[in-house]
Amino acid sequence: MYTPFMRMHRRTVVCVLTLLAGAALPVPAAEPVQGGSGQSLSRWELVRKAERIAREENLDERLVKALIQVESGFNPRAVSRRGALGLMQLMPSTARRLGVADPFDPEQNLRGGIRELRRLIDRYGGDIVLALAAYNAGEGAVAKYGGVPPYRETRGYIDRILTIYTGRPYRLGWRTHRPVHLLRDPASGAPLITNTGAAPRRPRRAPVLAGGFGR
């Protein structure tokens, strides 16, 4: 006689066997990160590469590393829901504009992304907040709203990067923000962080380029 208890027991045994079988399946090893010349790159090597390219492009390496940490967690194969690619999460159209043939190549991705960030910082007169807003949401969104767009993702993105960059909690106000400017010491040329110094130059007029999820 096949009782309800027997049916329940049979289902339990089947579930246990299924779990055991799944646990026994081999887990594929993660692929090593490949550099442009085919060599494997560790996270430490990726950080050193980002620092080197940032210095070559005359950009504060701490800002670059903070941005990469938030964008991809230093994962060269990261792909966002919206299709942004690689370490600095370049949209395909942005990668093409920057001449990045392979967004998953760390050297190409870093070089293109750092140059783009440098361009945006220059465009917005050294205002890092606006530069980061444009990097994330697009210059069109910054132009549309006359400042940081009211997108929760973008505002949280700026908070996270500047918290890492400045080493202290940073919170962007919903309607206003205190710009954090990237300045340089006149004597040594070392990058300085300030939100109390002189106001930056007015953003120079330039065509709005595509990029960011906000376009």
The amount of beta strand, in percent, is under 5%
Overall geometry: globular
What is the CATH topology classification name? Answer: Lysozyme
Secondary structure: number of strands = 2
The number of helical elements comes to 8
Give the overall pLDDT as a whole number.
77
CATH architecture: Orthogonal Bundle
Total count of domains: 1
Q: Distance between the terminal alpha carbons, to the nearest Å?
A: 68 Å
Assign the CATH class: Mainly Alpha
- Percent of residues in helices comes to 40-55%
Walk across the major sheet and give the strand order: 1-2
Structural class: mainly alpha
List the secondary-structure elements in sequence, H or E.
Answer: HHHHHHHHEE
User: What is the assembly state of the chains in this entry?
Assistant: single chain
Contiguous runs where pLDDT drops below 50 for at least 5 residues: 4-9, 11-38, 196-203
Instruction: Describe the sheet with the most strands.
Output: 2 strands, antiparallel
Radius of gyration: 23 Å
How is this fold's topology laid out?
Blueprint (H helix, E strand, L loop, with lengths): L3 H21 L18 H14 L4 H11 L20 H6 L8 H18 L4 H10 L1 H7 L6 H15 L14 E4 L6 E4 L21
Antiparallel strand pairs: 1-2
Helix pairs in contact: 2-3, 2-5, 3-8, 5-6, 6-7, 6-8
